[in-house]
Amino acid sequence: MRLHVNLTVQNIAESVRFYSSLFGAQPALLKEDYAKWELTDPPLHLAVTTHGSKSGVDHLGIQLEDLDQLKEITGRLTGTSLPVVEQENTACCYAKSNKTWVSDPAGLAWEVFHTSEQIPTYGAGGQAQAPQDAAAAPPACCARNQPPM
Predict the structure, then answer these.
(1) Residue 100 three-state SS
(2) Which end of the chain is more exposed for a tag (fewer CB within 10 A), N or C?
(3) Strands 43-49 and 29-31
(4) CA distances from 84 to 26, 61, 70, 111, 132 (A)
(5) Distance CA 89, CA 5 (A)
(6) In the predicted model, is pLDDT for residue 61 greater than 80?
(7) CB 102, CB 144: distance < 8 Å
(8) Separation between Cα atoms, residue 35 and residue 45, nearest integer Å
(9) What is the DSSP code (8-state) at residue 144?
(10) Which pLDDT score, from 0 to 100, does residue 123 have?
């Protein structure tokens, strides 16, 4: 398990230089609109992308090693009074993943996910829309609308 942080940035090249220096490592994946580091020390999955609506933290998350962990955490989140959105085999951020989305009481989006494989495109059409019954949850891809407060 590792913490996931997704940042929206204006310039991928500048961000890659900065975060590569900060972590002493090059990105595990680098595209013209996206870069990610999968670090073990600290256990961090950092993604930077130009797909968000404004610069800064887009969402936080937890990257999991297996689907059983995802099922366990999803069960705990479903026990809260907050809307939870589950997604299977979603194409996002150059990866195919199963995900659970929830926004905390302050409106900060959290993504809990297990990635099964890397894919050659950013996502299924880029800016997907949130499901109608879960207006507070993000859409199918990491590029998402801000949840209402």
Answers:
(1) strand
(2) C
(3) unpaired
(4) 34, 14, 13, 10, 12
(5) 20
(6) yes
(7) no
(8) 11
(9) -
(10) 76
Contact (CB, 8 A) for 49 and 143? yes
| Tokens matching residue 131 | 């499901």
Strands (E), 1-149: 2-8, 29-31, 34-40, 43-49, 56-63, 84-92, 95-103, 109-118
Q: What is the pLDDT of residue 66?
A: 93
pLDDT digits (tens, 9 = 90+) for 107-123: 889 999 999 888 888 87
Residue (of 56, 147, 69, 67) closest to 109 by Cα position = 147
Count other C-beta atoms under 10 Å from residue 124's C-beta: 14
* pLDDT score of 69 more than 60: yes
Q: If DSSP codes are grouped into helix, strand and coil, which group holds residue 25?
A: coil
Instruction: Share the mean pLDDT of the chain.
Output: 83
At residue 79, the pLDDT reads 87
